[in-house]
Design a protein that fits this description.
With 194 residues, this protein is mostly helical. It contains eight helices and no strands. 63% of the residues lie in helices and 0% in strands. Helix 4 packs parallel to helix 7.
């Protein structure tokens, strides 16, 4: 039997999505491929067609979420790269990605192996953050701004969008209006427009 078609054709993705939810709900230490198989309604052997073990599954989940996040930011960048609102739209994309996928936020930022380099000379460790760094470096270098100041701007931008993301995924935030409009308004108020 072709294991890639086993179940309903998208088993690997379902295993990763449900694995992520189980990790967020019960903790990584309580996840097993056997529990995950049961959750997905497949045989105990089915997850092993896609993952060597639990650690491999967790690594694949992290890569999967990072790819989705990067693609979401790249789409916003491709649409607004030449716009004066490029930083607003990148920031908004950052926040809305996690607002629409709160389980991704909780999982991704609980990882201890994700590295974020603030240096403008260090790329490749974290593709989503690199998008912000490259965009900021490209824009602010044209203004003859020193690298240290550009790095400070990147930190401030990241802190704001990360904080907004955390707020939007909190279950007990009262006054939960239209976050898409609100996030854009907050970013404009903070001076993200170039």
């Amino acid at each position: 039997m072709d294991n890639t078609l086993y179940h309903h054709g998208a088993l690997k993705q379902e295993l990763m999505e449900k694995g992520l939810l189980l990790i967020n709900k019960y903790g990584e230490e309580n996840l097993s491929l056997r529990k995950l198989a049961s959750e997905c309604g497949v045989s105990n052997a089915a997850p092993y067609a896609h993952f060597k073990n639990k650690e491999d599954l967790i690594s694949e989940i992290q890569n999967y979420v990072m790819r989705l996040f990067t693609a979401y930011l790249e789409k916003a960048l491709s649409e607004y790269a030449e716009s004066k609102d490029v930083f607003i739209m990148l920031g908004k994309a950052y926040v809305m990605f996690f607002y629409k996928n709160p389980a991704y936020f909780h999982f991704l930022f609980s990882r201890k192996n994700i590295k974020v380099s603030i240096s403008l000379d260090d790329f490749g460790e974290n593709a989503p953050f690199d998008i912000l760094k490259k965009t900021a470096s490209k824009y602010f270098s044209k203004l003859n701004m020193p690298e240290y100041e550009i790095e400070n701007i990147v930190i401030a931008m990241w802190a704001l969008v990360h904080g907004l993301s955390a707020i939007t995924v909190m279950p007990n935030v009262v006054g939960n209006e239209n976050w898409e409009e609100r996030v854009e308004a907050v970013l404009r108020t903070a001076g993200f427009s170039r």
